[in-house]
Amino acid sequence: METGIAGAMRHRQGHAAAAARSFASRSSKLLAGAWLACALLAALPVAAATLAGKVVALDDGDSLVLLDASGIRYKVRLAGVDAPEHQQAFNRRAKIHLAQIALHKQAIVEWNKQDRYNRMVGKLLVDGQDAGLAQIEAGLAWHYKAYANEQSPQDRARYEQAEARARQARRGLWQQDAPQPPWEFRRDKRR
Prior knowledge:
Oligomer: single chain
Distance between the termini: 85 Å
Radius of gyration: 28 Å
Structural class: alpha+beta
Number of domains: 2
Largest sheet: 5 strands, mixed, barrel
Low-confidence stretches: 34-45
């Protein structure tokens, strides 16, 4: 057994090193736990906010204006849907169909993001009917697969199946031999 100042110093250093190792181990476990919690939270679906109001205007077959009870106007883009653009075949029919479903009616928008044009992107429900799904079923819009990961798995499956049925039945724009998707039309127009 060592005695004196040198022995006491080595004894203290041993305790300090052990304490540092223990702290590092606890810190690593806490950090790993925090990372795991963040990863689990990121994997959870984002809860949608809801907005209720009256559909007062349509831009086209997938964009509209909703007026809430306090008189605030919100621009809304239907999630998971891409309807023909202005100057594309079936644009007018898509807009008319959406008007029949939603214009001047009370609606609920379940939304969880805003796009680069500051529009709420969400599912429009009118009397319990999903307006975006109705557009796809009628053959007047595409399922917008580039953003399908933002839909619930159930909505994604319903929209995919609705498009497949509309194609098979050659409803709406699927009557054309090779309808050009709106995202390609927009890309070509930018060139």
